[in-house]
Amino acid sequence: MRAGETSPAHVKQIPLGSLCEVAAGPSGSLLDSLNDGPDGTPVIAPPDLTDHHTVDTRRLRRVPWSVAKRLSRFALREGDLLVVRQGTLGRLALIKAEHATWLYGSACLRIRPQRELVLPEYLVSYLSYPPVQRALLGQALPGTVPSLNSTTLNTLPVTLPPLVRQHAVVEALTDVDARIRIQRKMADRLEALRPAIFGELIQGTRHT
């Protein structure tokens, strides 16, 4: 085995609840003062979680600061994860420093990793891994609106290599994500140029 590699014997299966604190958001009645105004503390809801595991801040609703103070136990920290528990199940986001102290809505679950055991960046990649997503959604509670609860998440097994291996995984995926962004920008640029190229071609001003 080469230096830095991890043998199967060092990769463990550990319940998520042994690695993280899982907490549901405040009940809807505690957030009845939500508004679309510019003042107050933002509250992240399922529509604000993107497919890229980030927070879209364009349509955030807010509660007055006095309400946010009473709900301080639901305040987010950098490195927390949010998972949708009602609605678009499986969508999740990693909370960045700029989102710290914000709140989250009742349709989300907050996952707070114990960083000495699991890296938040590793965990968000693990929970978005398609086989894990299928396993998670397969445990959703049936109903008019399928849902997840903290018990379901707490019992979810997490494949956990040592921290040094987690760092290596995160670095490799960060590099892949950077390459994807570059390719996506190139594709967007070509898409924007396509009409102009077509116009030049039909006018005979562009040579192929």
Overview of this protein structure:
33% of the residues lie in helices and 17% in strands. It is globular, with a radius of gyration of 21 Å. It has 2 domains: 13-160, Alpha-Beta Complex (Adenine-n6-DNA-methyltransferase TaqI, Chain A, domain 2), CATH 3.90.220.20; 161-208. A hairpin with a 7-residue loop joins strand 5 (81-84) and strand 6. It contains 5 helices and 9 strands; from the N terminus they run ββββαββββαααβα. It starts with 11 loop residues before the first strand and ends in a 5-residue tail after the last helix. By secondary structure, it is an alpha+beta fold. The chain has a 4-stranded antiparallel β-sheet with strand order 2-8-5-6. A 3-stranded mixed β-sheet has the order 4-3-7.
Brief summary:
This protein has 208 residues and is of the alpha+beta class. The protein has helices at residues 65-70, 120-127, 130-137, 150-155, 163-203, and strands spanning 12-15, 20-24, 41-44, 61-63, 81-84, 92-94, 103-104, 108-113, 157-160.
Task: List the keywords.
208 residues; three-stranded mixed beta sheet; alpha+beta; 17% strand; four-stranded antiparallel beta sheet
Shape: globular
CATH topology of the largest domain: Adenine-n6-DNA-methyltransferase TaqI, Chain A, domain 2
Strand elements, count: 9
Order of helices and strands, N to C?
EEEEHEEEEHHHEH
Report the uncertain regions.
Answer: none
CATH architecture of the largest domain: Alpha-Beta Complex
Mean pLDDT: 88
- Cα radius of gyration in angstroms: 21 Å
What's the CATH H-level homologous superfamily of the largest domain? DNA methylase specificity domains
Question: What would CATH call the class of the largest domain?
Answer: Alpha Beta
In terms of DSSP E residues, the strand content is: 15-25%
- Number of domain units: 2
